[in-house]
Amino acid sequence: MEKSLVLKCGIDEAGRGPLAGPVSAACVLLPSDFPLDCLNDSKKLTEKKREKAEAIIKETACWGISFVDHTMIDKINILQATLLAMKQAYEMMVSKLPEWLKAHGVDAPQDFEKSLSAIVDGISIPAIGCDVRCEPKADAKYAEVMAASILAKVGRDRLMIEYDKQYPEYGYAKHKGYPTPAHKKICRELGPSPIQRLSFSYK
User: Fold this and answer.
1) DSSP secondary structure letter of residue 17
2) Residue ranges of the alpha helices (H) in 61-180?
3) Taking a C-beta distance cutoff of 8 angstroms, is the pair 169, 81 a contact?
4) Is the dihedral angle over the CA atoms 128, 132, 138, 142 positive or is it negative?
5) Is the sign of the CA dihedral 93, 58, 144, 175 positive or negative?
6) N or C: which end of the chain has fewer CB within 10 A?
7) pLDDT one-digit tens code per residue, 27-65
């Protein structure tokens, strides 16, 4: 394989803390000529800069994204739901990888997954088919993880804005389901919304 193609992907999640909606995860493998100046920890970028970076990532990188909904979170717990989202995002990225590599002048061998490695933000290892290194705060250190962080956050925020159109009284467009005082208050007054994580307390 060409030396310019480093098969190192980054994986990160968004939405572990909210009281409602899905948890999301993304997996990204960047091209060697990716414009790194558009990246940062997603929490440190403005919404406009995140969306601009998302467009560049989706246009140039090999990527996958997954959402695990509130029902599954309640069923298997938030940690396992997060790891499941990471696994699904990785598998989506891998499914695109041969075609992406071909577009970069590389014919992927049948065992190309052996050439992959992943850096995951956090301390828990998802069950994926490559070497994995977990590191807390990786989303502030590694470009691949920053990119994954951006896709996961922008994708989840966009979905919560859509939910806001269905359930406007809960204010999802504003707080994205996070446990703000206003979110807890409306849940106490109206009861849980149809996308509430019932295993989480809003009292």
Assistant:
1) S
2) 70-76, 78-103, 143-166, 172-175
3) no
4) negative
5) negative
6) C
7) 999 998 999 999 987 888 899 999 999 999 999 999 999
